Sequence to fold (266 residues):
Amino acid sequence: MAALRALEDGREDRLFHDPYAERFVRAAGGDGYWDTAPAGWAAFAALMGEQVAVRTRYFDEELLRAVAEGCEQVVLLASGMDARAYRLDWPDRTRVFEVDLAEVLAFKAAVLRDAEPACQRVEVATDLRLDWPRALREAGFAPGAPTAWLIEGILYALTPEAAHALLDRVTSLSAPGSVAAFEHLPDNPALRTARTSISAEMANLWLGGPEGEPGLWWGRHGWTAQARDVREVAAAYGRPAPAAFDPARDGSGPGWVGTARLPKTG
Ligand SMILES: C[S@@+](CC[C@H](N)C(=O)[O-])C[C@H]1O[C@@H](n2cnc3c(N)ncnc32)[C@H](O)[C@@H]1O
Fold:
């Protein structure tokens, strides 16, 4: 994901600015990374690059909107190399919790050791398969206050059951007025072929997440969601349909980004 963000950052018409993405890529793969990337990477980047650009811009906007609407705490679930805590213009007092595995957060901290967060950034080293709500509370998260959640780059890697369990936990931690930005990318033949040519691990990464239209499964958890076809969001930013989700291409499938809300009064 960092590599795809770095590619977008290098475009003149970029949809966001992420000066940290390239740093992660070089730290992980050395200066020659772009020349030695695994076979299949270029095909995967061609399929997913536009989708990552569009979703990054969309989530930047949605998170800042949620904070402006009153969410003073933000949780980036499976934050990975997401640098939003450093690169977005957060209002004072915003706390951004980054939840990921300890070794991932340690790598990120090492790469960004000389960077200043633009908010109160809190690392929550935990495993999403374990009692992460407790780890989040122990890190200072306030369940009584509205939260802006980001669920990016994770749902598709979960089984439908695991995805619903995650949404249950998110819901149980969410006060009235909370907002959750999410994406939903069912697997499709084009993506599967590209991933298979990178590695077996990548090929098996996609488990699908919750089935069906996202507004329905957020509704089952008590939220009101607006899910938007990623093609429509791309068009609003002046971009073509992201290749993996362009019905004009063989092997493509649907893809969504969206935002779910809990009413402000219980
Ligand atoms: C595809 S990356 C997405 C990262 C980030 N949200 C983004 O969009 O750039 C998936 C992330 O999930 C994290 N992850 C995977 N399994 C996890 C687990 N069991 N507990 C916590 N984080 C996990 C990985 O470390 C990785 O950072």
Notes: The radius of gyration is 18 Å. The pocket of S-adenosylmethionine is lined by residues 1, 78-82, 100-101, 104, 127-129, 152-154 (CB under 6 Å). Residues 41-261 form a domain with the Rossmann fold fold (CATH 3.40.50.150).
